[in-house]
Structure formats: C-alpha cells, structure tokens
Amino acid sequence: MNRKEEIIFLENFIKERDEAIISLDESKIYKYCLKYGVKIPENKKVFWAGIHKLRLNITKLSEEEINVSKEWLDENGFSPISMQDPIKERLKMLKSKNRTK
User: Fold this and answer.
1) N vs C: which end of the chain shows fewer Cβ within 10 Å?
2) Can you state the angle between helices 3-23 and 26-36, rounded to 10 degrees?
3) In whole angstroms, what is the distance from residue 27 CA to residue 94 CA?
C-alpha cells in the first residue's frame, strides 16, 4: 500500500471507528471490529472501558457525551484519562510527510 492509499485507508478507518464508538451501539461497534480485524476483549467491562476511553479522543463529541464516558469510567473503576490514539498519530505523520515532498 502506498502512502496515498494508506492515508485514505486510515481516514476511512477513523471515520467508521468514531461513528461506531460515538453511537455506543454494541452491535455497530462489533461489526466495525470484525470488518477491520480489531480484537474484541472477552471481558465486557474491559471492552466498554476501551470504548469510553476512545470516546474521550473524539473531538466532535459534546460535553455531555464526554461526561457520559468519564462518568462510566469513574463508576467502573477506570481512570477517565483518554488513551493516545496511535492510528491518528500515524495519519498525522503520513500527511506531514506529504507536505514536505
């Protein structure tokens, strides 16, 4: 896959991921994971913790939606600190390389 194809792939991956995660619809999230080969934790609590932590990285969420995830994490014994998003970091790096060429 060349750089341009990878950028397009990652943009679609992130767009579909964010849509699934924002929805909090378990079946939609599972379909997304199966489509892209994303490992699904067997432990439901761990699964939802990951979903809520990822939601904290989505900039288009409202304050209310962010608070839903922070509250869920806090109530279930998880730190309400967002995780670094390696996919978005890779996309930024690829796009910055395109600008320098």
Assistant:
1) C
2) 160
3) 31
- 14's enclosing H/E stretch is helix 3-23
The pair of three-digit structure tokens given for residue 16, joined into one six-digit string: 């579909």
Output the six-digit token pair for 37: 């080969």
What's the residue count for the chain? 101
Cβ partners under 8 Å of residue 46, min gap 6: none
Give CA–CA dist 97/87, Å, rounded.
Answer: 16
Quick: pLDDT tens for 67-94: 999 999 999 999 987 667 788 888 888 8
Name the residue range of residue 26's domain.
Answer: 3-100
Tell me if the pTM is above 0.70.
Answer: yes
| Site of tokens 């699904």 | 40
- 22: phi then psi, degrees, rounded to nearest 5: -60, -40
Tell me the C-alpha distance between 77 and 79, whole Å. Answer: 7
